């Protein structure tokens, strides 16, 4: 009788949560940096939107 051809999933390994941790850490780092450099950090969200907008336009 043939064995089941379906491969077993790999045991253990990383779940891929590193990307979510990075996204969660960015606001925390931004708030921490705002305490040290309030004038420069204030413009970061505006700069980030401009970069994304420019990249989308080509």
TrEMBL record:
Segments crossing the lipid bilayer: 15-37
Keywords of the record: Membrane, Transmembrane, Transmembrane helix
Keyword Transmembrane helix: yes
Protein name: Apolipoprotein N-acyltransferase
């Amino acid at each position: 009788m043939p064995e089941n051809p379906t491969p077993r999933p790999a045991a253990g390994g990383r779940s891929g949560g590193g990307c979510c941790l990075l996204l969660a850490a960015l606001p925390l780092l931004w708030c921490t940096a705002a305490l040290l450099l309030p004038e420069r950090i204030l413009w970061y969200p505006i700069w980030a939107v401009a970069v994304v907008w420019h990249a989308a336009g080509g």
